[in-house]
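Table S2 (continued). Query chain:
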Amino acid sequence: MSLTKCLKNLTACFACLWLASCVNKPEPQATFNRSEAVKARINLALAYLAQRDFPQAKENIDKALHHDKQDYLPHSVLAYYYQQIGENQHAESAYQQAITLSQAQNAQKQPRPDVLNNYGTFLCQQLQFDKAQQQFDQALKSTEPYYHQGDTLENIALCANLAKDNAKQQEALNQLEKLDHPRATALKKLLEKR
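Corresponding output:
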């Protein structure tokens, strides 16, 4: 066999091996995004809670916790779940855990204002008005971006109404009126009916 023919065959063999290696390379696996998985499970859990399908909500919360036990969000929704089914001690514990984790995940070591607002609402339902007010105040004073101040002001007014604290209720309504006049007007009408 001539050297030229041998080199051609050798080159053909290398080309075939190279093409075969390209074909047999496994596709890079998509990385599993735990954060997105947690959010998806939490969204499902909230939808089930809205439908009052508590077993399905709990299953999705548990799966979110399985994806990331250090994320504050599943603990916050777990607290709300326990609140909805009347397990107040478990709700209290889950809210505390959510606050601690949200604080740990924050560069400034502050709890998330939305978690504080939700916890304040829970405390108000438990008739712990002073503690609730502390949570609401902390949420409003947070240096974290918070786009739901109206929710907190509304919760302050509703909680003050429940506590029969007319001065606090009026103060919250005045602040809400500056922020969202139609919402404040609707809330005033609601509170007048009570």
